Amino acid sequence: MTTLMSPDQLEAALRAIGAEQYHDKHPFHRRLHAGDLTKDQVRAWALNRYCYQRTIPLKDAAILARMDQVALRRVWRQRIIDHDGDAGDGAEGGLARWLALTDGLGLDRDYVTSMRGALPAARFACEAYVNFVQRRSLLEAIASSLTELFSPGIIRDRVEGMLANYDFVTEDILIYFGHRLDQAPRDADFALDHVTRNATTPWDQQACLDALRFKCGMLWAQLDALYLAYVEPGMIPPGAWRPGEAVSE
To answer: Alpha-carbon distance 29 to 108, whole Å?
Structure first.
């Protein structure tokens, strides 16, 4: 790309990537939201998604460590608090709320947090994400977070679909998603403003677009692994969770 886009054009290009590549279009998510998965398949999703939930504050801490502007750090550190909670005021974070989901699905909490049963592809994808934000430019690292532009839609579809279609799902165990409906748009608005103001060359803009494509691919790869292992053809790799393991019922 050799032509500089206006901020509005860059935003439109970023949103076009989400319209085409965001993981709401993956067959696994379509089945999840439509009620077409078994309880064990939902368990497999929640257990493996924990790897990503655990990674979020780690990648945000890596980004925070690279920021030399106090004002920028003050804003970005809220993301870590959102996921880790705040011991000072006793507020739970997103990670604890995700464990409410795995608890509610009957998975052993120690087993979930150990990640022993996670698919190798899920772990590798999360490690790749942390590696990306550590090694690429700060602008690219921030741009990679812009999948949050598209998350409110998938959250609404997920909560509505899972409550309607699974008798083992309740509002209490989906508490994580309600908080993200407020947090994700706030975070996305800030990151989008930062990217569109600071990507001031065609090369910067292309790098930001590629960073968002990377993040979409990272999310998609995790669902590919879930689909192949637990939907069809059922290729569960050695050491990964198998239905019936680490379940309380």
So the answer is: 24
